[in-house]
Amino acid sequence: MYPFVYNPPTGRYATCLRQVSNAQRFASQYNICSSCVVYLIFTSVMPLYHLLYQSYASEEFTGRELPTLLRQSSLVNQAVEVTGLLLYTPDGRFAQLLEGRKQHVLEVYERIVRDSRNHTCEVLMEGPWSKRSFSYWCVGLSDCAVVPEGLPLTCVNFRQLPDLLTKVAPTRPMLVHRLLSFVEPFLTNPTY
Ligand SMILES: Cc1cc2nc3c(=O)[nH]c(=O)nc-3n(C[C@H](O)[C@H](O)[C@H](O)COP(=O)(O)O)c2cc1C
User: Fold this and answer.
1) Does 106 map to a domain?
2) Which intervals hold domain BLUF (predicted)?
3) Structural domain tally of the chain?
4) Sequence-distant (≥ 6) Cβ neighbours of residue 149 within 8 angstroms
């Protein structure tokens, strides 16, 4: 799908070659310049996609489960250039914004839906979006102490969220509102 990406571990170069040879076949069939077709493929897959969902943890995520999940997620997300924000509340709810190329966002989301560690996934917002709000992978927790050192992610405490969200997504008031209302009970509680 993404001919401009070369990433040996994920094998996306092979996809690239398939796309280019399809483009050449298409071009010769219609007697047009093959680089125009390749260019069309490039530009048609460029736009970004975003998806916000919420779900419920099947079991409480303790100091062991959460680091495992974050390690797994952040490494995959880095490889496929999916960024965004994962929120986990002390009452066992998740909200996650995924941003990236559409195919990657949907593939990650499909795996999350199948993951028995959470249930009742519900998409709150999705669609094309012109630019990422998060250029990195971010996790919002009531207590960031559980996050292992050295992972390719940034962790923020709930009380840092209002500031962060208004900075990174100033043109997305609806998104900011949804994310903040998700953690709202914990924003006003001094324990968190
Ligand atoms: C709440 C929640 C959020 C998750 N977020 C991600 C994510 O952002 N990226 C990711 O690759 N996996 C994420 N996962 C893990 C995937 O569901 C899945 O376990 C992982 O991608 C490995 O999938 P596989 O065993 O099918 O290869 C998440 C899981 C849960 C429960």
Assistant:
1) yes
2) 48-140
3) 2
4) none
- Please work out whether the CB of residue 96 comes within 6 Å of at least one atom of ligand 1: yes
Structural domain for 77, as ranges: 48-187
If the chain, 192 residues long, is cut into consecutive pieces of 10 residues, what is the mean pLDDT of each piece? 39 44 60 54 66 96 89 94 96 97 97 98 96 94 91 94 95 96 86 66
| Pocket-testing residue among 53, 59, 94, 115, ligand 1, by greatest number of atoms within 8 A of Cβ | 115
User: Six-digit token pair at 144?
Assistant: 């960031």
Are residues 103 and 174 located together in one domain of the fold? yes
Does 21 share its domain with 106?
no
Question: Do residues 107 and 32 share a domain?
Answer: no
User: Does a structural domain hold residue 118?
Assistant: yes
Residue whose Cα lies nearest atom 21 of ligand 1: it is 111
Quote the pLDDT of residue 87.
97
* Beta carbon of 72 within 6 Å of any ligand 1 atom: yes
For residue 41, count other CB atoms closer than 10 A to its CB.
Answer: 19
pTM of the predicted model as reported, rounded to 2 decimal places: 0.78
Burial class (CB in 10 A: 0-12, 13-18, 19+), 179: buried
The answer on 84 and 35 residing in a single domain is no
